[in-house]
Design goal:
Distance between the termini: 12 Å
Structural class: alpha/beta
Number of strands: 14
Strand order of the largest sheet: 3-2-1-5-4
Number of helices: 10
Helix content: 25-40%
Number of domains: 2
Radius of gyration: 24 Å
Amino acid sequence: MKNIYFQIPATGTQSPGLVLATVTATSGSTPQKPGSSALLLDGRLIAGTVGGGIVEHRVLEYARNCSGGCQSALLHFSLDRETTEPEEAVCGGTITILADSNPGAHLAVFSEMQQSITAGQPGVLVTKVIPWNETSVMIKRCWTTGAGEIPLSCNADADLLKEVRGILTAGSRGDYREIEMPVAGEKQPAKIYLEPVFPLPRLIIGGAGHIGKAVSHQGKLLGFEVTVIDDRADFANPVNLPDADNIIVKDIGEAMREISKDMNTFIIIVTRGHGHDAEALKPCIGSPAAYVGMMGSRVKVAKVHEEFIARGWATEDQWKKIFTPIGLDIDSKTIEEIAVSIAAQLVMVRRIKN
């Protein structure tokens, strides 16, 4: 979920040993799927993963050699379940990884991507890979939001643009595609990889108490942009909430009304009382948010439910979309366990949505 491409503009110009490794194709059982990426510097993993184990070890070795000036390449690995080598993977599948030995050559592309995503505009990273010789490839990249032409000098740019727009319309983060395209004068076709990149899903937490703090930590680990709201400055501050990207010190209900909500928004209500819960929940009823969850005992939930229906604040169908009591039932007791149960439910809903 977290975008390692954003680290490239900061390191690429001064790091000749920087390598971007991306899983481009798999078959059978593999530790990672197409689109998974890792950033390596002088043979050290600094962000992401392409699966760990022997595959990542070999990619690290390749990256280490790249410090001496090796070319970019498509690396192929067979994860033979019948291997007798103790360090070999036994998944039984195959995996192909594009090792870009010079990601700094496309700093402008990654910077453009970062600007788009920061502005909330999704897009597709288009990577054209042309065989250079038996062991190396040439790489050309561009970033597109689907609004204009794709500048890759391909005979099928119009078809690529159609593919890009289809990916963005579908809205699936895992819709990584590979397309082959003939190249004039070359025996082997070029490979075009289309990787959708979306803004991070937003996790809005109403309440900065113990549960809110623990969930903000879990949310950050899971790749959400975390916003925490509370009217108590003693709780809503960077010292108490070190994992929050945004902290809002304001009446929770008022702030919740002001926050835009879309299918990329996940809302958790863990305030300190029934009245605060109701005020935080009302602006969320009927919204397009992907997830709205409210913490509370079954007795408390029943009371809030009764009030919302009686006052016309929600219909029964709208209420059924609220996750309450919140979290998956894992018999959680402690604050940390409750936070894990909520985080697990967020993951479940996020996967269903995507």
